[in-house]
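Final report, closing paragraph on structural work. Over the funding period we assembled a curated collection of sequence-structure pairs, and we close with a single example.
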Amino acid sequence: MRKRIAVVGTGAVGGYIAAHLVAAKQHDVVVIDGWPEHVEAIRSQGLRIVGMVPSESFQTRIPAMHITEVQRLAKEAPIDIAIVSVKSYDSLWATALIAPYLAPGGYVVSAQNGINEDRIASVVGWDRTVGCVVGNNFAVDLIEAGVVKRTMPRDTSVKSLELGEVHGRITPRLNELLAIMKCVDSCSITNNLWGVRWSKLCVNGMRNALSAVTGMNGNERDSHDQVRRVSIRLGSEAVRVGQALGYQLESMARIPAAQFAAAPDDPAAMAEIEEALIRGTKGSARSNDQRPSMGQDMQKGRRTEIDFLNGLIVSRGKEVGCPTPTHERMVELVGQIERGQVIPRPENVLDR
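Its predicted structure, as stored:
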């Protein structure tokens, strides 16, 4: 049965998802975005995906709407699935924008960094909220209006997209969504949405802000001895908070989360993690163009998600009595850079 799908936010992740859904030719897809030039580029030229190999590159036409035109949906078929893929700070208004046009059984999927299911549920209800955790190997960048570039290779052995209900049960709609999303990348179902979400938050917390404040891409960050160790310290603090909150955490960079928690006090654990991070910079594992979303935002002069990533780790750490001094420093530094008080450079985090 064909579904009516709206992708709200067609930046790097949303655009990549939408293009592959359209290319599969199985469902009716419309995209909605707040960047006028991007919408016009999609309308005039289509949305272009640049893969790491030629076979992954393509261009496709997609019906595209400015946010000022969404009321037109009232005259069209209702939306069965709304995929919200905006910055965390835009979750509330983006969900409210599409909510009036949902079908009676329609629901909203959060395909975002951070943990935003609670914000979405506050608008449409928990029963109409589904999570989609975007994996660490799903690295994409909106490089110009109408063009999304992938900066890490497809790897079917790694979970790129994990779908989960907030209550943890496996439902018919989750299986249906899995079948729909498999055309995008490797996709699976989890009964541990909150554990997977926090595990991804740990990775974002150790990479995104660090690239933003140092100005480094992913390979530069993980190749630099001192900066890499700051990254591991960030991961350790985030994992300890997640453990205290009672989450069932999953592996990060194919290393058990508990090993990250132990790393500052366990030289062997630290050495193994360092080796894994360095290995990730070798060969074709990651393009030199790969830069986490917050690093991209900093380059483009956009507002960052610092309060919803490292800031969330800090606030939840305070709730459970887990110190997060390195994350606090990241929040402080990102704010200073956004205000033009500091420039991004590795020295911002050295010897701290």
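The radius of gyration is 20 Å. The mean pLDDT is 94. We thank the funder for supporting this effort.
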